Amino acid sequence: MTSQALTAVVRSAAAARFPSLDLDGLDRFDKVSLLEAVAEAAGWPAVVALGRELRALEQQPVIRALLQTPEPEAIVERWLRLERFGHSRNRTELLACERSGELVRLTLRHVAVDGGAIVAVNDLFVWGLFVALMESAGFEDIEAALPTADAAAPFVVHGPSPAPRDAALPSDTHTLALQLRAPAQPLPIEVANDESAPDAAHARLAALLRRDLLASWTVQDAARALGMSARSLQRALQGEGTRFSKVVHQTRVDAAQTLLTSTPLELSEIAFCVGFADQAHFARTFRSLCDVPPSAYREVAAATTGVEARGGPR
């Protein structure tokens, strides 16, 4: 998801939540100025609430890709990967992940790539985003807190007992302790079978991969999920004239073709959604399998179907 797209969502949410707030004088792409105006009008909790507006986008392909895992630390790691894809000036670091039964505690840090300063409202907004991601993923009892001089009394920005609206923020807003309760029984991965070809290993493998294209699939992981040994899977694929890496690449390219012709996502967002390490790798693999680069494929599809390359009707 591009920074501009996220800023547009924030601006729309701010206008709806605070109709008396004059946003016309603000640069439409200046997220920080918008957040500062909201904080001045309604206090720091309103900034966290704007970050939680990400829940409204949970059906958006990028957000869905983030949430295709039951592990909270994996969701965070995918967000960090998305930040790198978008060449974000600010990045999030996962400092620690601790588990105690169903409780998970993540420690996050928000840093500027160039080593500069990040204003507090930007930190709070990002922490609201992470709360939204965990809410959308189904986690419960979520508490987000900033560190204070008294380790036993953190500054809670989201949870059952948040700090008062007029409470002064602690000096360190860049670090967050995010605690949540994971479901006791995570939903199992269901593998779709191709009834017309029940023994087609490549079809079963592709169905599995589509469940979570961002996962770093190995032959061993896939075979385990399919109820067979890695060697048996490799032999079955070889017998069908293909191999594991080829099915992985083809499945990702097939998914990219769908996104190219049905969404207005940027190429970098599509590369992220279908699991490529970076946009360059995506472009090379797509061209090798389709004989055209992704951008040309989108343009040809648009000319054929009467839908603009950016996704809207002509």
UniProtKB/TrEMBL annotation:
Q: Which PROSITE patterns match?
A: HTH_ARAC_FAMILY_1 (PS00041), HTH_ARAC_FAMILY_2 (PS01124)
Residue limits of the HTH araC/xylS-type domain? 203-300
Looking at the keywords, is DNA repair present? Answer: no
- Coiled-coil region(s) at which residues? none
What InterPro entries does the annotation carry?
A: Homeodomain-like_sf, HTH_AraC, HTH_AraC-typ_CS
Give the highest taxon in the source lineage.
Bacteria
Molecular function terms from GO: DNA-binding transcription factor activity; transcription cis-regulatory region binding
Keyword DNA-binding in the entry? The reply is yes
Q: Which residues form the signal peptide?
A: none
Q: Keyword annotations for this protein?
A: DNA-binding, Transcription, Transcription regulation
Question: What stretches pass through the bilayer?
Answer: none
Q: Name one GO cellular component term.
A: cytosol
Entry protein name: Transcriptional regulator, AraC family protein
